[in-house]
Amino acid sequence: MSNHPEAPVTPVEAFEPPYYVAVFTTVRAQDQSGYSETNARMENLVKDVPGFLGMDHAQTPGGLGITVGYFRDADALTEWRSNAEHRAAQKRGRSEWYQSYTLHVAKVERSHGFMRAEVTQGATAG
What we know:
By secondary structure, this protein is of the alpha+beta class.
């Protein structure tokens, strides 16, 4: 998922199962000092994990955030979970950035997607 306003918003594609998802749901605390920088670093760091497939993120105006990370296998998830820099960010998140959070890890057994075909301007039926 892109954070660039000019980029189209699209979900991570559907992959051939099985694969794993980590669903991280948060409510942030008031003080977010250093969060943006650390979050950007984590987003770049996870891309280096072999088996990382992608990430979706959404934030409500009320402050509920949901990040879904997609991983090819349990080994990829384990590698991400045990990354030293990630563990340090988790510790800081618990002490500073999150009021609360939940983490759900699941094995995906079915996956499919849909994308509306783009209509070309000026195209006519015929």
